[in-house]
Amino acid sequence: MSTEVRVPTLGESVTEATVATWFKQPGDAVAVDEMLCELETDKVTVEVPSPAAGTLSEIVAPEGTTVGVDALLASIAGEGAAAAPAPKAASAPAAAPADSGGESVDVMVPTLGESVTEATVSTWFKQVGDSVAQDEMLCELETDKVSVEVPSPAAGVLTEILAPEGTTVDASAKLAVLGGAGASAAAPAAAPAAAPAASGGKDVENAPSANKLMAEKGIDPASVTGSGRDGRVMKGDVLAAMTAPAAPAATSAAPRAPVPADDAAREERVKMTRLRQTIAKRLKDSQNTAAMLTTYNEVDMSESMALRKEYKDLFEKKHGVRLGFMSFFTKACCHALKEVPEVNAEIDGTDIVYKNFVHMGIAAGTPTGLVVPVIRDADQMSFAEIEKAIAEKGKRARDGKLSMAEMQGGTFTISNGGVYGSLMSSPILNPPQSGILGMHKIQDRPMVVNGEIVIRPMMYLALSYDHRIVDGKGAVTFLVRVKEALEDPRRLLMDL
């Protein structure tokens, strides 16, 4: 009996990939979830795990082949299944003595999400010697974007932790070993020897498409940093090296000034989390890449507040969710983006990609840092659907349960600093998007209306935009349309 190995889902709008590297060859024994090959798309590198144990009998798509989603890559013969788990067999006798009645089970890093290749072990909930039930949480991993809980794949005893807290692990790493109910604590002694076997000792070779592109462009391979397995240079790495601006040496961080000993003793030094490092890098990259500019306006929130006050109870009773201001702003932005489509576009090389849909990113502060969950097709949603989506995404963000897919593909972002009391700020673009709207605190201020001074609830709005693609006229027009919709929310119902 044979098992087919097919191209997995490659991600939103990605329809094909190139086979970059085969880690196994026909005749090699493979274990379940052992990495067989690496695919390269326009955006990311995707590793293909083995769907079954057995022997790799045939490679249908050699290195350099372009394949579509669900295309056949290879076949695995089941007849060799007995020999397949060879890497684990070395530790099996020790992990499960004759009187234990159980076998050792490896705890592996779960799927981390598209383009995520490594994670940091943040917390172990169990220690060596602890009994665990199937699906009980063993540890928590932290990636660039989200926290991932690792459940126990089986019931047993945690006999060894291979990746202590603070360890950085790749997407195919082994985290720990579980033994049977009577497993010896010394059982996993042979486990470390099994881990290197997965790599197979194969020399690191660049992806064929990367070598071809470097040869065509005359790029020195030594100048390109590889993001693939074991530092392999992929096509995307070459493209990034071609488009990345040369950073002058002067941009390196200045050394920290000397600190008096009495002050140093009262300081606390904490390593930045991976999420915080990623936030810092992305925001700085945004400033370095985009020609970012911010335009401001203010909006009288009287009519929107009156409408919300009049219908909020009926709204919550019918839809089971509270009516907030985010749905008003989301709707207003969707209308404005239709009139000024360049704010909803992005730059790809020398092309402008206009999005005929709105995937709205809603920036949310969490205990671990800023994340931006995406509400897909927000322009097709009702007020109730938007409010439900925001509430659900917000809760998942605070609980650290957002998946990578839920934070990808946004076309425009709204950031509400007003919930923290911010009166005015300039939001930073969320690349590759070309626009982000900053909301602020609603504050009563004296305003002149029809020649009279009246007190009105006012909010400052800020639109940061990429001046490479959005002109000043378009940015100002966008913000004025948002202002008009909020000051007369009936326009939203009339699609004006």
From TrEMBL:
Pathway listed: Amino-acid degradation; L-lysine degradation via saccharopine pathway; glutaryl-CoA from L-lysine: step 6/6
One example GO MF annotation: dihydrolipoyllysine-residue succinyltransferase activity
Classification via PANTHER family: DIHYDROLIPOYLLYSINE-RESIDUE SUCCINYLTRANSFERASE COMPONENT OF 2-OXOGLUTARATE DEHYDROGENASE COMPLEX, MITOCHONDRIAL, DIHYDROLIPOYLLYSINE-RESIDUE SUCCINYLTRANSFERASE COMPONENT OF 2-OXOGLUTARATE DEHYDROGENASE COMPLEX, MITOCHONDRIAL-RELATED
Annotated organism of origin: Meridianimarinicoccus marinus
Keywords of the record: Acyltransferase, Lipoyl, Transferase, Tricarboxylic acid cycle
All copies of domain Peripheral subunit-binding (PSBD), residue ranges: 205-242
Listed EC numbers: 2.3.1.61
Family annotation (SUPFAM superfamilies): CoA-dependent acyltransferases (SSF52777), Peripheral subunit-binding domain of 2-oxo acid dehydrogenase complex (SSF47005), Single hybrid motif (SSF51230)
Reactions the enzyme catalyzes: N(6)-[(R)-dihydrolipoyl]-L-lysyl-[protein] + succinyl-CoA = N(6)-[(R)-S(8)-succinyldihydrolipoyl]-L-lysyl-[protein] + CoA
Family per record: Belongs to the 2-oxoacid dehydrogenase family.
Signal peptide: none
Lipoyl-binding domain mapped to chain residues: 2-77, 104-179
Cofactor(s) listed in the protein's UniProt record: (R)-lipoate
Protein name: Dihydrolipoyllysine-residue succinyltransferase component of 2-oxoglutarate dehydrogenase complex
